[in-house]
Amino acid sequence: MGAAIRTEQLTKRYGSTTALEALDLEIEEGEVFGYLGPNGAGKSTTIALLLGLIRPTSGGAQIFGLDVWRHAPAVHRRLAYVPSDSNLWPSLTGAEALRFLGAIHGTVDEAYRDELVLRYELVVDKKIRAYSRGNRQKVLLVAAFASRAELLLLDEPTSGLDPLMEQVFRACVHEAHERGQTVLLSSHILSEVEALCDRVAMLRAGRIIETGHLDVLRGLAALRVHAELDGPASDAARFDTIEGVHHVVVDGSTVTCDVTGSMEPLLRVLATAGVTRMTTHEPSLEELFVSHYGDVVGAEP
Amino acid sequence: MTTGVAISAPPAAAPDAGAVLRRWNAEVAIARRAFTQVRIGAVVCAVAFGGTAASSALSYATTFPTPASRAALVATTRADAGLALLLGPIQSIDTVGGYTVYKCFVFLTTIGAIWALLAATRLLRGEEDGGRWSLVLAGATRPGRATAATLVALGAAIAIVGAGTSVLVALTGRSPDIGLGAVDSVVYGLSIVIAPAVFAAVGAVTSQLGRTRRVASSVGMGVFGVAFVLRMVGDAGRGTRWVLWATPFGWTELMAPFTENDLRPLLPAALCVTVLALAAVNLAARRDVGDGLLSSRDVAPIRPFGLRSPEGLAARLSIPVLVAWCAGATLTGLVLGIIAKITATSVPSMTDMLGRFGVEGAFVNQYLGVAFLLVASVVALLPAGQIGAACDEEVSGRLVHLLVSPTTRRRWFVGHVTITAIAVVAAGLLAGVGTWVGAVSQGVDLDPASTIGAGLNVVPTALVALGIGAVGLSIAPRAASRAVYAVIIWSLLIDLLASMVSSLTWLGHLSLFHYLALAPAQPVELRTIAATLGVALALCALATVRFTRRDIATG
Q1: Closest Cα of chain B to A197: distance in Å?
Q2: How close A146 gets to chain B, by Cα (Å)?
Q3: Using the beta-carbon criterion (under 8 Å), do A125 and B299 form an inter-chain contact?
Q4: Global ipTM
Q5: How does A30-56 read in b/e, with b if 16+ C-beta sit within 10 Å?
């Protein structure tokens, strides 16, 4: 299968601010791709560029082999988009909004749309202005999934949804995946990406810092070690200098640290320090994310 | 990003441990923020009002320097019901002050009233509509108190307008030729702020009624229209003069600053403002936030109209507003047509005055020529609202839903511009028809073709305003509708100034209305019409190209 999305050195600058720097991304057809990053990392900028809403400062992007700026209408015929900010026409009812969104997109699976309305428990004869944020978001999700578009661009689509509805959303993404639709899921909720995506890219301050399969990302990460000693571990520097050990936190008689590579050097030190109890675990994407962004979220690289 | 903005200076080291909390009074903070949003408008109004009044006084003193020339002016102008209807207080035009009041009356009270009305609905309903009001109300305040704080800020802005006008007039009045006293100038300033103060209060009340800023402003504009017509009725003759006591514009007129300095009308004005403000505060305190007293149902069956295409939806969303505009244009025409009867019977004096606008021929036609300038301004303001709505569509993020469909940007843009252009043509046509019907209803024999033609004659100029708005939308959407308002108000002021002061005639070239033949009094040149249409078309085309190339605001 070919690439659904391909970007080459895609860059967007606003004056002296760089929103996105030389993005190289390739997303295969039929793939569910997670696009992770904290607020302001450039996720929405990437999607706006892919939709041809804003113009790249340099570089370019293609969707299904078509340039996203020059062939925008042809590209749009094959995709559906859900923004995180669900503003719709307040005077329309939910049903009217769905009908309109279906009409302008050009394709809609009406039976599936009706089914989705039921699954999302959407009351469609209410006017949009009377909807909560979550309900407005549901209207956009129903419209996007019911379009059966080949590519779904979802920009933090579950903002405002309750946990039950988030499960419905996940089921819809699975169904889309089974039908062979490509999904780009931008999110800062790692559990969501972990549950849904084949591959992920992590973005920080406009730059990709990691791309790969979920396994690859986990492999990059350290093992988190939590050890309790039989006396106060007064000397953190003793652990800091051990090969492959970082992020050491000493609190009384407990030591927490991350280990990459072999555990042996750490075990040797711990054995002499008198360890009473030790646990290790593989970090979740959440922890991985924190170890990448940590306390420098939002800072320039 | 490491660039940070200091929100407040770091607190000085506290003698004891713990956080240093700076305490603010919520209402003070609300009033300050509201004032920040209107202060520039207030200063612009103050300078424009003071400047216009001062230049009127100056031009009168130089054009009519001797008592004899002033007596001649009075002989040809006063006691003319038509002029009084159109421009207001005409009694004392043999004095510098009386003439200044008369010259500036309609324009300053109109602009002041509309400015204050729109500012009030923006600060109250606009903030609520945009969701920011709930954030404000989450602070240590209640809806009634927050509304009152906002009204205090509006009051301060209006005080700036009054003070600025007074000071500029007083400074000009120190010249011995003009001779306007400081007290007179203060009274003038007070008379000028009556309309803004009343309409700010009206806007505060309509903001409690309508659920959107648009509805609140539209209801307020309706009140403005009634007040305006009442003033015209009050000026129609001795028998109806009492009606002036029933409208804020009448109160301004009855004060007769510089000549009579009658302070009594300030009483009903103050009473009206107080009652309206208290009503607004009370209504705000009683109703649910986000709701309006005129709210409609929230559940409705599907209405399929306009749901098949972007143009359809644009038409569906704007038809109520466009119908209101067309009704407004028809009514304006109707009133002007009815008044034509009065002017037709009191002919000789107005000719000289109208001659300054360069109109000739039968008197009724001359009157209509100038009257259609009013129609032209009404119709030319229509695109401002539409451009504003298009901008709102974009910055709210709703436009994105259309542009991520196969709809091209060009199609959406051209669709919006075309719908507005159709509405402009309809408004011009209906104003012409209204004028004819109004005149005929009073037994004035007007040629239907030339009257309706005069209505259509304002269309190309309004389309240029649309073109300016479209260019604005294609470059800086947030400034686009303001650009249209600015161009129209500028054009009106400049046109007025150029017609009054002979040395400023050249300035008239900078007015949109300079290129508008005052039909039916002036012959309509096809070449001018074609050129105006060409400019409008070129601006729209330029805007379309520009719009397809720029970044879209994504909400």
Answers
A1: 24
A2: 14
A3: yes
A4: 0.82
A5: bbbbbbbbbeebbbbbbbbbbbbbbeb
